[in-house]
Automatic annotation (TrEMBL):
Keyword terms: Membrane, Transmembrane, Transmembrane helix
Keyword match Zinc: no
Species of provenance: Hymenobacter rubripertinctus
Ranges annotated as spanning the membrane: 27-45, 51-70, 77-97, 117-137, 149-168, 180-198, 210-228
Protein name: Carotenoid biosynthesis protein
Pfam families: Caroten_synth (PF04240)
């Protein structure tokens, strides 16, 4: 018979839960750092960078998965934001390569995996990761939402500036005459601002302890590779 004096263990104290969350965060940061450092070393110094390029889609999906794991209260509104942002980012690129009006004249290579309508499916994932992480970063600033959206859009363009030389070198995409047009950055800013305004309008928890690390490690990854080209 059960002991009538037995009591269920008390809920874990707040400091224990905080310590557990901190350990999880350190593990996630360690995994992302391992993937990015390995990829950086392979692309920068290997005689066969194509081997390491195969893991770019894996790294992107892993990054998204870890970000989602640290998003509190994954509500229907949050999932709708994710889906809409990925679809918007993907189809903006479809319009971009077909009309050359949004970003200039460019075409995608093979490094980012399977394409549909001339655009890698993972591009939508990339737009989500960058929109989400920069949106979270801007929430740290005590500013009105539209000013936060402007700041986040600038952060997105800043990351794109670092990505562009690397993208050309490793067959992510190619520009006509190998010249990155100013229109690309104007278009990126316009689309980024729209997505950031949408990010601020959707009601879900805008906190994620992993987001600043993801933005920083990606910025350093592409900036470092660009400096070595």
């Amino acid at each position: 018979m059960p002991d009538p004096t037995y009591q269920l263990p008390a809920a874990a104290p707040a400091d224990y839960r905080a310590a557990t969350q901190q350990r999880r965060l350190r593990w996630a940061q360690g995994v992302l750092l391992l993937f990015h450092v390995t990829g950086f070393a392979g692309l920068a110094f290997s005689k066969d960078p194509s081997f390491f390029l195969r893991f770019m889609p894996v790294t992107m999906l892993l990054t998204l998965g870890l970000l989602l794991a640290f998003q509190p209260q994954r509500t229907a509104a949050f999932w709708s934001f994710c889906v809409v942002t990925m679809l918007a980012g993907f189809f903006v690129e479809v319009v971009g390569i077909r009309t050359n009006l949004l970003f200039g004249q460019y075409a995608y290579g093979s490094a980012l995996g399977v394409k549909w309508l001339g655009v890698p499916l993972l591009i939508g994932v990339n737009w989500l990761i960058v929109t989400y992480t920069t949106g979270i970063l801007a929430r740290y600033l005590p500013l009105p939402n539209f000013v936060r959206a402007l700041v986040a859009a600038v952060l997105m363009v800043g990351l794109d500036i670092c990505i562009e030389p690397v993208a050309i070198r490793y067959d992510f995409w190619h520009w006509q005459y190998d010249v990155i047009p100013l229109l690309n950055f104007k278009g990126w800013f316009a689309v980024s601002l729209i997505l950031q305004v949408y990010f601020n309008r959707v009601e879900f928890s805008k906190r994620n302890p992993l987001a600043p690390f993801v933005y920083l490690v990606q910025l350093l990854f592409f900036f470092g590779l660009g400096m070595l080209l």
